[in-house]
Structure to design on (208 residues):
């Protein structure tokens, strides 16, 4: 059994295919200005993405594995004027291998997603990691006492939210360089990553 991490699936959400250059657009889906030619084209693209992502995830994740999803599991309803598919979260969960734990993200509200928490603190190999959708550089999302605990009592952060902006980044204070590590699916070739892969990456990054 392995434990995997991923984030920002944005299931049902056609626009994310455009924003993150996911490989599910068909020729003719967009007009010359980059807008959907029709709502039907957007919905068809969202459906292709759902099928493709679930297939990709299931190619790595076994039924007995644990999966922690770090926010923005899906969208349902209109997002920036584009209607999303109305598939319920439980239907996606039923299609996915593994036992999924969902943390909340900014797009999970009012979507029927039932996250267990905003964040968690876990042991991963010899390290203690802080896990939350928002990177800690979004300081307004974290209470001062929590920020103090994160910086002084954990080894690094596992986050999502930033999609392709960066795979990792350091949050710098006057006396500390704290690693934020993005497990979002767009930063990892649409694949989930497991504990050993994260540890290997983190140890290489910290040597830089």
């Amino acid at each position: 059994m392995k434990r995997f991490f991923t984030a920002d699936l944005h299931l049902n959400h056609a626009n994310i295919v455009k924003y993150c250059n996911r490989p599910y657009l068909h020729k003719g889906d967009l007009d010359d200005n980059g807008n959907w030619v029709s709502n039907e084209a957007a919905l068809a693209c969202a459906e292709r993405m759902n099928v493709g992502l679930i297939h990709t995830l299931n190619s790595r994740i076994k039924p007995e594995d644990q999966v922690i999803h770090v926010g923005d599991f899906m969208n349902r309803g209109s997002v920036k004027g584009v209607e999303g598919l109305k598939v319920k979260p439980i239907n996606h969960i039923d299609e996915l291998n593994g036992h999924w734990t969902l943390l909340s993200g900014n797009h999970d509200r009012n979507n029927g997603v039932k996250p267990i928490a905003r964040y968690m603190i876990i042991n991963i190999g010899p390290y203690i990691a802080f896990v939350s959708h928002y990177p800690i550089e979004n300081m307004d999302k974290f209470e001062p006492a929590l920020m103090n605990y994160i910086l002084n009592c954990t080894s690094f952060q596992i986050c999502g939210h930033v999609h392709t902006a960066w795979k990792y980044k350091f949050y710098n204070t006057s006396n500390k360089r704290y690693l934020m590590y993005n497990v979002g699916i767009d930063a990892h070739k649409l694949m989930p990553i497991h504990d050993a892969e994260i540890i290997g990456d983190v140890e290489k990054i910290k040597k830089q």
User: Anything to note?
Assistant: Residues 3-206 form a domain with the Purple Acid Phosphatase; chain A, domain 2 fold (CATH 3.60.21.10). The helical segments are 15-19, 39-60, 89-95, 144-153, 195-206. Residues 102 and 114 are 7 Å apart (CA to CA). The chain has a mean pLDDT of 92.
